[in-house]
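As described in the Methods, two query proteins were run sequentially through the folding procedure within a single session, without resetting any intermediate state between them. The first query and its resulting structure tokens are shown here.
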Amino acid sequence: MVSKNCIFCKIARGEIPGDMVYEDDDCVAFRDINPQAPTHVLVIPRKHIEGLAETEPEDQELLGKLVAVAARVAEQEDLVESGYRVVINWGEDAGMAVPHLHLHVLGGRKMSWPPG
């Protein structure tokens, strides 16, 4: 399923340009236009899923692949040695701006805890 009006679906389809760092049949990864760290890449499924709360049992394999792609992106971006963070937000209070499931891969600077 795709959404005609979802900005991330449009990026995944190539209708809106994105600074792509990874693509396959199931997902894409591109640089965030409002980066919160020196490296900030979003990993999204091509399938439109609004967020974790909207996943179905059949999405389990796709969810695992998204995490694996996040790790691959971190390796491509030379973040493994220094460390990186992978974040999934759900809902307005968590800061989710686009209602399409996405993983943030953040690195290139010291992260603080707690994150919020």
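Immediately afterward, the second query was submitted; its sequence and tokens are:
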Amino acid sequence: MMMMRGANRTGRWLAWPGLAAALMLAFAADAAPRRDRQLEAQLMAHISVLASDEYQGREPGTEGEAKTLRYLGKQWFDIGLVSGTNDPGNEWFAPVMLIERLPAVSSGRFSRRGRPQYIPADAVLVLTSGKRSLVKDAPVLFVGKADGAMPPRSELAGKVALLLDGGIENSDRQNALLAAGASGVMTVLDGERTLTNVRSRRLRPGYALASDTLGGDLEAFITRSGLEHLLQGSGQSRVSLEQAATKADFAPQQLDLAASLEATTREVAIRTFNLIGKLPGRRPASGAVLFVAHWDHFGICGEPPAEDVICHGAVDNASGVAALAELARRLVRGPKPDRDIYFLATTAEELGLLGAHAFAENPPLPLKQIAAAFNIDSIALAPAGSPLAIAGRGMTPLDPQIEAVAGREKRMIVAGLAANAYVRRQDGWALLQHDVPTVLVSSAYSDIPRLEAFFEGPYHRPADNLKRPIELGGAAEDVAFYVALARWFGDARKVRLPSK
């Protein structure tokens, strides 16, 4: 304002009517964050390869995986990393064996005093978490809503617990009844949920590490009409049971009914790999810093006549492994840290964080030697100049050190714990379960409405592809911050190993 008044008084600027506007734009440009266009281009180059049709959605156990690992392995080698598996027999690529389990046999038969009770075949669904589970002629104990204390083990042992659904879709009550001694749990679908809904969700493949020993828990679902068929002639009805369950003095009651339930699964073995690289430090005995990003996605996830049938995973998580590569490039060019810096590209994150669990169960170094771990997931969402957020805030001793780095780098971290809503949905959660101090630090998680818009839109769909604009301003700034984190936590004088 003052400058404009001076110009009018002297008349010197009147011959340049656009000069004031140009100067204002120049000042605004100086105030705006300076974008690292070269880094953004490098990130986009990686994403364009990994999210292309040629890579077929990077599903574990497919040719898409082989292409992904060849590409990433070559990039890391050319950058100057060395193998981080610390296993001469499996350099760079650490094998991970998965088991895919598909529900197969489902059988529910019922009797009263030895006489079979009719029930339509499509009124009951029986499932197991193991290879085969069977209970034969087990008494049925009605437990109502099971929303209070569990019945004693002596009352549940050898019985099938009959539970009212009540519109609660999680399995907490079923799991609690099984843990308390029930031989199986049969849930009555007495709310909006139908057997068709359950079938569509539960008859999908399940995945686990081959090393996991899964129990043979038996879980069944029955329709209201199916239960009415079973109770005919017993002196009880579905309505009377539902009414009894609402009373304050409700107690579990054994029904004049026996259940024979059987379920099996079909197993398929999948051999896949974590990729592990390392930048050796000057003092490896002082510990290590770990950076993690998952390389996998869902592969072919649609069917014709859909125009696009590939879940490309451009943001989730080609952007994360792209950041991992460019972080490595910048650290290799800088001064060597005290600590080793490990780079982990995990498999099967989308199948249940399985690659991260496999790493933690068979690590290339003692987990207590990891001073800090940082997960990088779906970071290509925020524009340049966005603040950072910490998913896992308050869950590790890392927060004060991260805030110190942010202060030095002139980066703002949003207050509050909103980003913690997503902490269980990423590889950092698996590492936390093994007592590795791990957080996800990213500008992508600082604006929850923007993040939710991605989750409700292209996330886990073919639309997360190269056809839509990919915002890399915040991602490039995040990579620069990861460099600063690596140098800070890689300095054994600044950060000590956490006490276990």
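The chain has two domains: 37-98+269-489, 100-267. We note this only descriptively and draw no conclusion about the first query from it.
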